[in-house]
Amino acid sequence: MRSSDQRPSPRRPHLPAWSHEQPLEWMLWPPPAVSHARVEQELAQDAFRRVVGRFATGVTVITTRLDGVDHAMTVNSFTSVSLDPLLVLFCPDRRSRFHDVVLKAGVWGVSVLADTMESASSEFARRGRDLSRPLEGYGYRRGSLGVALLDGAVATLACRTSAVHDGGDHSIVVGSVVEMHSGAAETSPLLYYEGRYRRL
Ligand SMILES: Cc1cc2nc3c(=O)[nH]c(=O)nc-3n(C[C@H](O)[C@H](O)[C@H](O)COP(=O)(O)O)c2cc1C
């Protein structure tokens, strides 16, 4: 080792020169500037995810069609809202590519997934997936609004957007139900709880 290597660096005055014995943290020097408020916010978000993850949900694939192209995204924020009129909602993340497409299209389909459809859920939740032919390999029929409704679903609905509300980093998209079907009686739903797929 050259003698100059042992001179303290002005940026790391109290650390010796690198060697294999150094702890990994040494390589992360200088630490990124993270404010106390930012750390608090991330801890609160982690806790929030854990708490709301204890609310068991079903899993849907929401589809839409814009300029003759199908789009689909896995969503568990779907819920029914009103009986008179018939209204449902879901909450797309503003940062997802699906968000602007579904708002522009104004129509969407809901396929409530059966417990045999976990792979469809994973596929339509994969960030950065190829959007050119999303439904290739999946059976579906077109609902009255032209949106795709997946074969094998426990239930399907076709909806027209009736309102969009601000929901922080998500939008709250409310839709009037135009068409609805129940799947075969023996199908059982796919569930999501504490970040994992479950079955009844
Ligand atoms: C079970 C499950 C439920 C999800 N629910 C939602 C949801 O309600 N809203 C949402 O925006 N993203 C939800 N996601 C994540 C999106 O599916 C995922 O971020 C999106 O497909 C990424 O697409 P992008 O590449 O266009 O960003 C869910 C994912 C899973 C696995």
Automatic annotation (TrEMBL):
Asked whether the UniProt record includes Oxidoreductase among its keywords, one would answer yes
**Any transmembrane segments, and where?**
none
Q: What keywords are annotated for this sequence in UniProt?
A: Monooxygenase, Oxidoreductase
Alphabetized InterPro entries for the sequence: Flavin_Rdtase-like_dom (IPR002563), NADH-dep_flavin_reductase (IPR050268), Split_barrel_FMN-bd (IPR012349)
Q: Name one GO molecular function term.
A: monooxygenase activity
Q: Which Pfam families match?
A: Flavin_Reduct
- Report whether Oxidoreductase shows up as a keyword of the record: yes
> Flavin reductase like domain location, by residue?
52-199
From the Swiss-Prot or TrEMBL record, give the protein name: Monooxygenase
Organism per entry: Sinosporangium siamense
